[in-house]
Amino acid sequence: MSICRDSEALNVMVKEALHFTKYGKVADYIPALSDANPETLSLAIYEGGSTCASAGDTQEMFTLQSISKVITLALALMDIGEEGVFAKVGKEPTGDPFNSIIKLETHSPSKPLNPMINAGALAVTNMIQGSTVDEKLGRLLSFIHELTGNTSIQYNEKIAQSEYDTAYLNRSLAYFLKQHDVVDGNIELLLELYTKQCAIEVSCDDLAKMAYVIANEGRHVSSERPIIPLHIARIIKTFMVTCGMYNASGEFAIKVGVPSKSGVSGGIMAAVPYGPGIGIYGPALDQKGNSIAGMKLLETLSQRYNLSIF
Ligand code: DON
């Protein structure tokens, strides 16, 4: 059954999940993110053709934050291959918060356990090819333009600067990784690229379209042209299942069972293999940094349309 044809039910599900926003809190450790309205929830679903949006302002823009980690991972795998990427970053979940430093020291070698935690993402961003920050960011943006079909996507300068100015923990992680030869080069330039990458601004529609490509063997939303090689689309979907919702990934797999990636802006990108792409925005977060109402909405969607892959 086409979910897009069920717009009345989608409206009801969004309305019901909206109640959960009051149990969450907008992220404020990146000062500019605290401007978001916590009482917002929107959803876009893409099944090919056109998006069907059920509720909320689906044109509202928000930043990718950690959702960008999936995209940079795909680009790094395409740039330098599996062997190069996984020489510097592991494939295992941590069970720790996304910005934790602890396992870098307790594990030997000091290689981040996976590309979805901040330490692992910094290592992956360091692999993007190009000779300047602008060139690397330009390549990443072009890739996102191709995935979404939306060439107007850019990064939000205010949010990037706000994160760059306050990224004390990420700076510590990056310098630690440099000490252990996981990253090389100028760390301040790496942080500039990473914070700009996290501040790339999208709508739910854009997220749903990116998710659709990842869900459907890496093929372009309308032309079916391959954008991400099949084996790379598989790798990133697998990380979305095992690490995409951080230390809530296990429970999320049981309750929802759809490869998904969250960000502290409140976005969630969910890719149902050989099915729809789903984009959600709800900036009120739970304690683990996932959109509280967004998770609830995905749970309801998964049950109603039998979306779990398990
Ligand atoms: O590096 C950070 O802390 C943010 N730019 C991204 C973290 C994030 O989105 C974690 N998500 N749940």
Write the layout of secondary structure elements.
Layout: H1 7-18, E1 42-46, E2 51-55, E3 62-63, H2 68-86, H3 102-106, H4 118-125, H5 133-148, H6 157-166, H7 168-179, H8 187-198, E4 201-202, H9 204-215, H10 230-243, H11 249-255, E5 260-262, E6 267-271, E7 277-281, H12 292-305
Antiparallel strand pairs: 1-2, 1-7, 3-4, 5-6, 6-7
What does this protein look like?
With 310 residues, the chain is of the alpha+beta class. The chain folds into two domains: 3-61 and 203-304, DD-peptidase/beta-lactamase superfamily (Beta-lactamase, 3-Layer(aba) Sandwich), CATH 3.40.710.10; 66-198, Probable Glutaminase Ybgj, Chain: A, domain 2 (Orthogonal Bundle). 45% of the residues lie in helices and 9% in strands. It has helices at residues 7-18, 68-86, 102-106, 118-125, 133-148, 157-166, 168-179, 187-198, 204-215, 230-243, 249-255, 292-305, and strands spanning 42-46, 51-55, 62-63, 201-202, 260-262, 267-271, 277-281. The chain has a five-stranded antiparallel beta sheet. It has a two-stranded antiparallel ribbon with strand order 3-4. Helix 5 (133-148) packs parallel to helix 8. The mean pLDDT is 94. Bound molecules: 6-diazenyl-5-OXO-L-norleucine. Homotetramer. GO terms for molecular function: glutaminase activity. Its EC number is 3.5.1.2.
